[in-house]
Specification:
Elements (H helix, E strand, L loop, with lengths): L7 H6 L7 H25 L11 E2 L8 H23 L4 H8 L2 H14 L6 E2 H21 L4 E7 L9 H4 L3 H7 L4 E8 H4 L9 E10 L9 H7 L4 E10 L9 H10 L6 E7 L3 E8 L1
Parallel strand pairs: 1-2
Antiparallel strand pairs: 3-4, 4-5, 5-6, 6-7, 7-8
Helix pairs in contact: 2-3, 3-4, 3-5, 3-6, 5-6
Length: 289
């Protein structure tokens, strides 16, 4: 396999330079088992508590000021990216990485939409499916055009006061709030500056990030006047401009560090940030996360 004289652990993490059938089968079996197990678990622990219905769609495109759609695109991108990188680790060709690996996020998240579609409490969302496809397309298109990822979706989170107003909806613990409290979530597109200006002296790891968030959301839909009237809040959008670090561009010969950097690179690094609220209100953060 052309491995160097490194520790067995390092060589295990190092991508194979030719097809390794054991690794490939391990990746495929693991992904199928984890995906199927997760869907079965969701069906039993979440959907089983609600009545079933005929498959149906809902229009939730105005909910949460589209923060949930940003989350779908982010998840689809990174599930596909990580799956493709696992296939690369197995020595699978680039074509098959994109053909079979990149679509894992879209397939898994769309399967969740099917479960939603058969639940009377929810319904399949065309907006969610489009967001899933967008995340996958962002990964695949960059590989086809540039043979690298110059634009990376990232995520950051901070706790907010709004979760205390409706903990049943926005989460009663930190772990729940990360998933449920859209007020504290920010989704970013992080641009690697050197990739767009190769040959310059710009540090290869330096990124410029554009973020999107929203605040004062206590209900999914702004038309829930009773809730917003009682709290005196009104949801609004937020846009951000910040510096970031692309951890995968940091030079290292350690396969362990490369693996860790690839996983952690989903998170936006705290940095000085300019916030634009309602398009006409500017706020400066020394450090924003």
């Amino acid at each position: 396999m052309g491995y160097s004289q490194k520790s067995p652990f390092e060589n295990t993490l190092r991508p194979s330079d030719s097809l390794n059938h054991i690794r490939k089968n391990t990746v495929l079996i693991s992904e199928i088992a984890i995906g199927a197990g997760t869907l079965i678990g969701l069906n039993q622990l979440w959907y089983a508590d609600y009545p079933r219905s005929n498959f149906h769609f809902i229009n939730d495109n105005s909910d949460w000021l589209q923060m949930d759609k940003a989350g779908h695109a982010f998840s689809s991108y990174h599930l596909g990216r990580l799956s493709s990188e696992m296939l690369k680790w197995s020595g699978v060709s680039k074509r098959k990485q994109l053909l079979y690996g990149s679509g894992v996020g879209f397939v898994f998240l769309t399967a969740v939409e099917v479960l939603d579609g058969y639940s009377s409490q929810w319904g399949a969302s065309t907006g969610d499916i489009i967001a899933n496809a967008s995340g996958t397309a962002l990964y695949v298109s960059q590989e086809l055009i540039w043979n690298e990822q110059r634009i990376t979706p990232k995520f950051s989170f901070h706790t907010t006061k709004y979760a205390d107003l409706r903990p049943d909806v926005l989460g009663s613990s930190f772990s729940e709030q990360i998933l449920k409290d859209y007020n504290g979530q920010t989704y970013w597109l992080s641009f690697n500056l050197y990739s767009f200006a190769k040959g310059t002296k710009i540090p290869k790891w330096l990124n410029l990030a554009v973020g999107y968030g929203a605040e004062a959301m206590i209900s999914a839909n702004q038309k829930n006047n009773s809730i917003y009237s009682s709290t005196g809040t009104r949801p609004f959008r937020q846009f951000y401009l910040s510096l970031d670090i692309n951890l995968t561009k940091i030079n290292t010969n350690s396969s362990l560090l490369k693996t860790l950097f690839s996983v952690i690179n989903t998170i936006k690094v705290p940095a000085p940030t300019i916030e634009f609220k309602r398009f006409n209100d500017v706020k400066y953060h020394l450090i924003y996360f």
